Structures are given as C-alpha cells and as structure tokens.
Amino acid sequence: MRHLLDLGHRRIGFVNGPLSVRQSVDRRRGVLQALSEAGEDPDKILVEVEAVHEGASYCADAGAVGAAWLLDDPEPPTALFCANDQMAIGAMRVIRDRGLRIPQDVAIVGYDDVAIASELITPLTSVHQPMREIGRAAADLLLSDGSAIQHITFAPELVVRQSTQAPTSADPRSAGE
Fold first, then answer.
1. Cα distance between residue 16 and residue 58, in whole Å
2. Which of 7, 51, 137, 147 is most buried per CB count within 10 Å?
C-alpha cells in the first residue's frame, strides 16, 4: 500500500478474501495501518471488496470477480492491491480483457511473491514472504518440546516489478464520456 501511495495513487482498490478468515483480517489491518501512517483517510482513498467466486477465495477467479467489481465503480481505482498473487493474476486478466494496460492504466500489487510472479507477461510487483524460513521455523516448533510459547515474526519485503508505476494524468476509462 505504501508503494502505491508513494507512486501517487489516490484511488486504490483492495481485493481481499472474506473477513471471516484471519489472513483477510490481517491483510486489511496492514492496509489500514499503511494508510494511517501516511496520514491518508481510508474513506477517501480505499475501495475494497471481499472477493469470492463460487465459494472459493484466494484464487484467480475470485481476484477477477473482485477486480471487475472495483473497475465498475463510478470512480474506478488507478491501482489494485490484491491479498495474494493468485487473486492478482485473476485481476490482471480482467484488466486486460477490458482493454486497459498494466501499469499505465491500472497498477497492481500482489502478496506472497509466488514463483510465477516474475514470469508473467507483465511481471507482478509482490510482497515477498520468506516461505522457506517460515516453514523451517514451523518445523522447529513442531519438533521442540513445546515447553515455551514462542512468537516468531518474519519481515516481508516488497519486490517491485513492472506492474506498478505512477498514475497517468489521462484516464482512458473516461475517454468519450
């Protein structure tokens, strides 16, 4: 979110999963925290959707549904932040199907930095999680004697690729209106 704000985006769509899932609540909390730290009013910048497709969330089809809903808004966002990369891939499909360009018309950021993120037609900017280290720590905790409660935090890292840039002043979505 901070990356998109730093680029100058002031209408950002958040494609999230259902808020009944802790991961969705945590991602939303992070989005709101980033806006607060930047001194931005979420009610003025953020438009969000809990994206689900045929009962499934965190998949490409759910991301497509969420992106379509956000892009149909009377004031569509210039950027999308998706709760994971699979949802971002679905959102990218909708953006392209509508004749919009990534990142010129709509910038997009995913989360997880899956292997395919760097191989897409437009490589996806994504928040990288150290999955190997997380897995190793989880295994160590499972194999420990369990006598002490441990809280381990891992720092995610933004990997900037070609799917983000500053918003353009001419919005092709409003051409001809």
1. 8
2. 51
* Pairing mode, strands 107-112 and 125-128: parallel
> Going by C-beta distance under 8 Å and a sequence separation of 6 or more, which residues neighbour residue 9?
77, 78, 79, 107, 166, 167
Cβ atoms 82, 110 nearer than 8 A: yes
Single-letter residue type at 9: H
Residues 128-158 have pLDDT tens digits of 987 788 788 888 788 887 677 777 777 889 9
| Whether the Cβ atoms of residue 41 and residue 68 lie closer than 8 Å to each other | no
Unique residue bearing structure tokens 């010129």: 104
Q: Which helix (H) or strand (E) is 138 found in, with range?
A: helix 131-143
CA 160 to chain centre: 13
DSSP 16-47: E--TTSHHHHHHHHHHHHHHHHTT--HHHHEE
> Can you tell me the distance from the alpha carbon of 94 to that of 29, in angstroms, rounded to the nearest whole number?
26
